[in-house]
Amino acid sequence: MAGRDLRTLFSTNDRQLEATEAFTNRQAQWELVAAALAEHLRHVAEPGFDVEDLERPRNNVIVFHGVGGIGKTTLSRKLEAALAGADQRPAQWGEPAWSGERILPVRIDLSRSAGASFEDLVLTIRAALAELGRPLPAFDIALRRYWEAQHPGESLEEYLSRGGLAVRFGKAMPQQMQSALSDVAQALLLPGTVGSAVGALTGALVRALRDRRQTVRALAGCARLEDLLEAEPDLDALSFYPHLLAWELAQLPADKKTVPVVLLDTFEDVGDRTHRDLERLIQRVVWLMPNVFFVVTGRSRLQWADPGLQGQLDYTGPVAWPGLSAPTGGLPAARTARPAAGHGRQVLVGDFSPEDCDDHLARRLTRNGRPLISADVRRVITDRSHGLPLYLDLAVMRFLELRRSGHTPVPADFDHDFPALISRTLSDLTPDERHVLRSVALLDSFDLALATAAAGLRHEAPAMRLIERPFVRENPFGLWPYHLHGLIRSTIRSADDHADDRWSSRDWERAAARALAALGAQWQDHTGRDRILLVGCLRQGLALARDFRLDLGWLTDAAWSYVGDSVWEPIAPPTRPDTDAALETPTDALVELLAALARRQHEHRSITASRLAAVTRAALLPPDVHEMAVYYLAKAQRDLGDSAGSRAGMQLVADGDGRLAPAARRGLVHLARLAGDFPTALATAQALGWAGRQDRVEGDILWPHGDMQRAAAAYATARDQAEHHGVAGERATSQAQRALVLAFTDPDRADDELHLAEQYLTGLDLRATGFTLRIAALVRDAGTLPGLEAARALRAEIRAAGITAAEAVLELALAFHHAVAGETDKVRAVIARLNELARAGDYSYYADIAHYMAGLPLPTSTTARWIDSEDRTRARWHGLVAARRMQTDPAQ
After folding, report:
1. For position 617, what pLDDT does the model report?
2. What per-residue confidence (pLDDT) applies to 490?
3. Entry pTM
4. What is the CATH architecture of 600-687?
5. Quick check: 857 and 851 in contact, CB under 8 A?
6. For a disulfide at 180, which of 140, 201, 632, 738, Cβ 3.0-4.6 Å?
């Protein structure tokens, strides 16, 4: 299935180079054609099938559409060869179910470069049927009459020879037509030479048909022959003559029965959505030949099933073309033996898989049977191609061009865009469609409103036409349903554009500004809280503002909304090649800020602190957003044990009295708590209110005292307030803390609280809260843990994250377990680890609590300032251990 690639052969002097037109397997498409053709054969063989029934729906067409360069023409050629004979069909394509039938493939190139007219289409079909070896008098007489009227003095035989049809199909057609005319003349007892009396012959035949003479009874069975012969022999009449061909095919004896398969390639050149004159004529051919199967390949779907085209085409709507009314988004039916009757006949030709790309490149250029293009180069080309065959072909030509210059191609040579892809994509678009295409190339995904606004147009029609193109893909479940083919998008944005209407850098900047404004309008106009819309607008908006150095505008308010929910989805656009460059614009700083906040759930806190410190040093952000960077830097410093740095940052934000001032005051409370100054922490917490998360902070202060019931109640209040305000992250965090404190007192109840917390955490990216849940599960099972493997793994994860507070709580949970089990030596080992964590001064009271649990005396006086007293705190913790011992071993 590979021919000589002449273009490649004539691109090099290397005679050892073997260049072939490597045809990568399209088995899925073959299976669809085979199944649809088998269904067609069953249909035309049914007793009730009538070729002259002009009202029955048509299912005699299948359409393969896709972007330019996807391989539709190659597919059309290979289908023609496979239908012509088993020896031309790839072995992997398999034997079709209709292998015993006589199939006659006829491929017609409708491209402008081929210069085929509608006359040529009709003549090609008739010339191909010459293989039947018999005249087709009903059609032949009508065609001869048309030819003499429209081409006076021009020989049909010479025309066929000049157009190549005589070479392609032989010279039997003119002889068969002459024979048909002679036979009819003889039957009508007409004198003279038939060739010079076609008009007289036609008139005599019409009269004979009208009089129902026995001499023309064979033709009398064609009910509409008389009407067609009496009609003016113009192009419009010619488009109805295929009905006569269909009728002649139906009259063939059983041993001559043949089913033509007409392959119409490059259908996009038939016309456009405004000028459908040629399309109307071709559609008539398909409709009037229901016993012929048609395979259409082109860039766009056929719209024949659209009832809105009534009046532009003769036969429209889903009833007329049931198989064309439900397009498939790829090849879902490719592996089925038989597609559902009448459905799935509009098939998007998909991109090559990476494996197919590599296979194509490996077989395209060879020397001594070995691939000329190395595996590492093939890998880069495959990655860049997005599976588009045209890109592979262009890359092969670049490979040869590099070799001609004396350079050995290396992978870096193919980090390259091809402007030819742009010209192929734009070739059949209107100016407005080209404008919209360039505009949406700025967007990851879009809808009609967004595309129209980005293009700066007042009407959606160009965008509506554009989304029907095969390089626009649809995901009906996406926030914005449409996106460009990946390679088309990247090429339009980055390749040198030599089109007449190419954009300047200023044009791109203006389009980016329009797109950014449109995204902001969609987010700001939406009523209610829509987290998905917020994140989607931010992701696309940040990329546009960063790449084109646009003002922040609505992005600052969106950033505050993003931070306010504490969900932390990945938000930053892809990193640019100059990622190591210093921050230069406010958008650079905002992108880095939000990226650091989202990534802190997956990176060590020291990395987060370093990134946020760089943002604060750059001082590029507006004052309120700058405070956001300072606040979260202070949080990271607190997690790392840098209390002094954290306190300075928190105080700065609190004194600024901005949006994060309540959160900063909460941060100061946490710092006081970590230092063991609980009275100061509690007094400050009671003035925080909801904005400062007062109830959760009070729970954080109460549970180190062993006062679990009051802490659980405070966390429940905090959870309910967060739910009321729609803050998902705060709700999950408060519920996780509630599960932790109840795990110390009531394992059964804690189990339910843990399940609820897990539900709240679903879909959120809160690493520290996830650690809290896993620690709570260890506390729930304290005294009965079969082993500590899970605790060791959790400790490693917490250390990798750099969250000291979580590690301290984990050690406290282990101390509780060992105390319940009476393992005093292991409690002392935990105390040693807690003292190591407290070397910087914070978390020292955690070691005190471990002593309290095991009933061990403190080696020195505690530095913690408890709310009530040390004795009461000791009693509560020791009481929790005693109660758990009774639960695990009632005999005690």
Report:
1. 94
2. 83
3. 0.65
4. Alpha Horseshoe (1.25)
5. yes
6. 140
Higher pLDDT, 669 or 220: 669
Could you state, in order of their start, the residue ranges of all structural domains in the chain? 6-24+352-416, 28-102+258-350, 116-254, 431-503, 505-573, 600-687, 688-888
CATH architecture of 688-888: Alpha Horseshoe (1.25)
Q: How far apart are CA 815 and CA 812, in angstroms?
A: 5
Whether the CB-CB separation of 861 and 880 falls below 8 Å is answered with: no
User: Dihedrals φ, ψ of 204, to 5°?
Assistant: -60, -40
Task: Return d(Cα 183, Cα 205) in angstroms, integer.
Answer: 12
Of 285, 245, 241, residue with least CA distance to 150: 241
Helices (H), 703-803: 708-725, 728-745, 747-761, 767-780, 789-801
What does the DSSP assignment read for 95-140?
--TTTTS-EEEEEEE--GGGT--HHHHHHHHHHHGGGG-S--HHHH
Is residue 741 over pLDDT 90?
yes
The token pair that represents 328 in the structure block: 């498939």
Nearest to 263 by CA among 95, 406, 72, 412: 72
Which of these, 604, 528, 586, 595, lies nearest to 568 by C-alpha position?
595
pLDDT at residue 575 is higher than 90: no
What distance in Å separates the CA atoms of residue 692 and residue 660, rounded to the nearest whole number?
A: 9
Q: Do domains 600-687 and 688-888 have the same CATH topology?
A: yes
Q: Which residues contact 232 (CB under 8 A, 6 or more apart)?
A: none
Identify the helix (H) or strand (E) that includes residue 265.
strand 259-265
Q: In the chain, what is the greatest distance between 2 CA atoms, to the nearest angstrom?
A: 135
- Pick the closest to residue 760 from 725, 797, 734, 779 (CA basis): 734
From residue 146, alpha-carbon distances to 143, 232, 239 in Å are 5, 9, 11
pLDDT tens for 216-270 read 566 777 788 888 888 898 999 999 999 999 999 999 888 888 999 999 998 888 8
Task: Enter the tokens of residue 612.
Answer: 């946020």
Integer Cα distance of 440 and 586 in angstroms: 24
Q: Does domain 431-503 have CATH number 1.10.10?
A: yes
Q: What is the mean pLDDT of the chain?
A: 84
DSSP-assigned letters across all residues of 14-71: -TTEEEB------HHHHHHHHHHHHHHHHHHHSTT--TT-SSS----EEEEE--TTSS
Q: How far is Cα 263 from Cα 656, in angstroms, rounded to an integer?
A: 74
Map residue 192 onto helix, strand or coil: coil
Instruction: Retrieve residue 329's tokens.
Output: 């988004």
Distance CA 112, CA 103 (A): 28
From 782, 788, 800, select the one nearest 877 (Cα to Cα). Answer: 782
